[in-house]
Amino acid sequence: MKISACLIAKNEEKVIARCIESYRAAVDEIIVVDTGSADETVTVAESLGAKVFHFNWINDFAAAKNYAISLAKGDWIIFLDADEYFVNGTGGNIRTYLKEIDKGFNSIACKMMNIDQPNQQILSEITHVRIFKNDKYIRYVNPIHEMLYNFRKNKKMNAILADKQELLIYHSGYSQDNQRDKAQRNLALLLKQLPQATTNPVYYHYIADCYFTLGEWDKVLEYTKLFLDSKTKLVGHNVRPSNILIDAMLQLKYPYGDVMREINIAIDKFPQHPVFYFYKGKMLYDSKHYDAAFCELRQALQLHENYNDIESNSLAVNLNVVYSLMAAVSEFRNDCMWAVEYYVKSLQLDKTDITSFDRLLKLIRNQPVQDIILFLNNLYEIENETDLDFLVNRLVNHATPKVLAYYINLREKRYTKQDFFVLQMLVANGHYDKAFAAIVDCYESDKDERLALAAATAAALSGNKAYMTQAIESLPPAYGNILKAYRGDLILLCEADRDTFLGLVRTFILWAGDDILHKMLAVGGQFQHNMDAAIAQLFLNQGHYQAALAHFNAAVDYSLINGILVHPVLYFNQGYCLQRLYNPAAAVEAFVKAYEAGYRDNDIYDYLRWNVDKLNDGRVKARAEEILRAEAERIF
After folding, report:
1. Which pairing describes strands 84-86 and 168-171: parallel, antiparallel, or unpaired?
2. Which residues, in sequence order, are CB contacts of 304 under 8 Å at separation 6+?
3. d(CA 31, CA 362)
4. What is the DSSP annotation of 237-263?
5. Cα–Cα distances in angstroms (integers) from residue 217 to residues 209, 252, 599, in the given order
6. Domain boundaries in the chain?
């Protein structure tokens, strides 16, 4: 048995060697058809033993590929694009695989992972025929998005699907950095074929796909609907039209009901495909149906783990989001061990997921410093500058100053970076004398608001009167007003000072001791309006539920004493804090108050359900169960 490898190429000097090397040992000849390279593509191909032929480009991929096939002498042909390659050594399995397959098959369909080349992130999983018999009746059709066709009467491409462990291809051609260029190139070719779309509706889909990459969402809807109305089947790609249709609707902010209707239609059509369960789970999560969202996301995950269909699967690019959302729901339920596990899995897939990182840090921040560092070192490469930059950038937002100092010092030793984060680290760790003058100098140089906040924080935390005076004189008026109030001046603070005060409270929550923090919180009493609800939200955002609850309670009391209608969100937030503090009876009581005050966001029903079963019989439990029954009857 003789095997030929074919490919067409133009200006592929950066990737063609990787392609050829991935199968070179398994083939008897390599045919490269060059369509007009101006780089070293031909030289590289010839150095690897390829026979190079030339083809004048006529805007027809099928014609170029068929020319390559006409030159092949093998019994079987491997036809990869230059930016595709066999991975995990599977190219070496080709000859053995061909010897063992049933003679009734004339082609092999291989799993292909579309990857983002810079970071090797998997974007989607598709199936393509890339190995086929050298048969004069088997040729490519269509000038763009070419596909194999068997011209023998009543015969089809009869492909066997290879297991990923035996044959697996990576495709880097649609990385994020070159997607738009390729989409514009393909769109120009496809629009020339548009008159043929009435008899070959597949062009509608390919045009819609190009518009999807270019972000022209109305065009995506227009052409996808034309394709779907045609009832045309596209083996291996039947899922894609529904996929991009839903994405376009989301981008255009279609009503919840319209999008969910389209998702359910897709689930009915493709019940074993994971991506539509992800869409449904994400929609449910965003609308605060947390239990329902978790079920759909778990289903998406299970289907993805066992997926072995020929239809393309794009869930891989959102898999970290699946874990992140499941982690958040677990956290809301107080299943913190599961939350940590899911956040870790999310970060293993995308180390730069800010939401997962921040939520995870809040769950583990009370662990010993060395344990936190060891934990992070297992997730991030401390030899990698990008990883260190990310860690430093995020850790300044957490109450882990010694952990921040460790990574700042590590980064400084390896990459000699003296920047804003170094100054923040000094303030966080109480080195006010080292930090203050440098921060003020930097602020006066570029007027960065972050530096003003750091300077004011350093001055206030230091207890140094000279620093306080300099900060009051050098920083914007709002900082001066807050610092004057902090040192004891009687001053009426106004709405213009509000954001600056809250910014300082946030940094104090992160870096100040209790006594100094309470001194700053007392400044809130010098505002014209009550600040407890806003302060409570800061504590809540940082996961300090006891302190948050105290301020939410104070905000409610202030409203009641002053005859102000209590906002239902205040009652709800009381309930949330109590639930996170493992006090189900008080939590349910607060949630019932929120409901009776008019709170109707969907999450209240999950929070009631999670807590009501933990209660003994009583008036509050009975009322909560009544609310849950009424909601169930409304839905069904």
Report:
1. antiparallel
2. 274, 313, 315, 316, 319
3. 57
4. -SHHHHHHHHHHHHHTT--HHHHHHHH
5. 10, 7, 35
6. 3-171, 179-330, 560-636
- pLDDT tens figures, 501-550: 999 999 999 999 999 999 999 999 999 999 999 999 999 999 999 999 99
Q: Is 161 exposed, middle or buried (0-12, 13-18, 19+ CB in 10 A)?
A: middle
Cα gap 513→532, rounded to integer Å: 19
3-state secondary structure of 67: helix
Rounded alpha-carbon distances, angstroms, from residue 507 to 362, 524, 529, 633? 15, 15, 22, 46
| Predicted TM-score of the model (pTM) | 0.89
**Token couple for 61:** 């991929």
Instruction: Classify residue 34 as left (phi > 0), alpha (psi -120 to 50) or beta.
Output: beta
> CA-CA distance, 459 to 242, in Å (whole number)?
57
Read off the pLDDT of residues 463-476 as tens digits, 9 standing for 90 and up: 999 999 999 999 99
Determine how many CB atoms are found less than 10 A away from the CB of residue 81: 21
Confidence class for position 22, pLDDT limits 50, 70, 90 = very high
Q: Whose CA is closest to 344, among 543, 302, 279, 336?
A: 336
Amino acid (1-letter code) at residue 271: P
Name the phi and psi angles at 351, rounded to 5.
-65, -15
**Contact at 8 Å (CB) between 450 and 426?**
no
* Percent of the chain residues past pLDDT 70, beyond the cut: 99
Euclidean distance between CA atoms 351 and 487, whole angstroms:
42
Q: Please say whether the beta carbons of 483 and 472 come within 8 A.
A: yes
DSSP 3-state percent helix, strand, coil across the chain (nearest 5): 60, 10, 30
CA 338: distance to chain centroid?
A: 20
Residue 416 carries which DSSP code? -
Name the CATH architecture for the domain at 3-171.
Alpha-Beta Complex (3.90)
Backbone angles phi, psi at 39, to 5 degrees: -115, -150
SS (H, E, C) 122-136: EEEEEEEEEEEECCC
Nearest-angstrom CA–CA distance, 568 and 600: 9
Contact predicate 159/107, CB 8 Å: yes
> What's domain 179-330's superfamily in CATH?
Tetratricopeptide repeat domain (1.25.40.10)
Is residue 521 within 8 Å of 502, Cβ to Cβ? no
Half-sphere exposure of 561 (CA within 13 A, CB side): 7
Tokens 């079963």 found at: 613
Structure confidence at residue 173 (pLDDT)? 74
**How many angstroms separate the Cα of 138 from the Cα of each of 79, 135, 418?**
13, 5, 63
Q: Of the candidates 204, 284, 285, which has an alpha carbon nearest to the alpha carbon of residue 245? A: 204
pLDDT band at 177 (very low <50, low <70, confident <90, very high): low
Q: 147-150 and 138-141 as β-strands: parallel, antiparallel, unpaired?
A: antiparallel
Would you say 35 and 8 are in contact if contact means Cβ atoms under 8 Å apart? yes
Geometric angle at alpha carbon 164, from 115 and 166, rounded to 5°: 125
3-class DSSP state for residue 292? Answer: helix
Closest CA to 423 of 439, 446, 407: 439
- HSE on the CB side for 514, CA within 13 Å? 2
Rg (CA), the chain: 31
Longest CA–CA span in the chain (Å) reads 95
